[in-house]
Write a structure and sequence with these properties.
Length: 151
């Protein structure tokens, strides 16, 4: 199954505390590229980005309070087209299971994910960010059927 993404994408922006400054700096540098898109972010990150960029950012809960799960739910509903998630691989997070679940659900639903500045630069500069794109949506019906038979 495929879904045609328009030129205006919904981009989730997430950053762990130690990475927020780097995400904000990256977003400021790429403000013009981000401006035409619908931006969503977890709580604190969204507040900072909206203030610093002067762009509208839809703010969800803080990551540890469920924001990561809210973004994951939107990904599974097909409402997020890409995610920039600057996460800190060297610092233990109290909500680490949520972080892993968010990264997993992005892969399950074939959503592009940038986890550091280099991958974010590649993603935002891709011609596909401003063009239509036929995203292949994986067919998970076999997996769902197996779970239903086992349960």
């Amino acid at each position: 199954m495929q879904e045609v993404l328009t030129g205006r994408k919904t981009i989730a922006l997430v950053a762990h505390d130690n990475c927020k400054a780097d995400l904000v700096e990256w977003a400021e540098y790429n403000r013009d590229a981000l401006a035409p898109h619908h931006l969503i972010a977890t709580g604190t990150t969204g507040n900072i980005l909206e203030h610093e960029l002067g762009l509208l950012v839809e703010r969800l809960q803080s990551g540890p309070l469920g924001g990561d799960m809210q973004i994951g739910a939107r990904i599974s509903e097909g409402a997020v087209d890409g995610m920039v998630f600057f996460w800190d691989p060297l610092e233990a997070q109290p909500h680490d299971p949520d972080v892993k679940a968010l990264l997993r659900i992005a892969v399950v639903w074939n959503i592009p994910v940038a986890c550091n500045r280099a991958s974010a630069d590649f993603m935002i500069s891709s011609p596909l960010m401003s063009a239509s794109y036929d995203r292949r949506i994986p067919n998970h019906s076999d997996h769902v059927n197996r779970l239903q038979l086992a349960g």
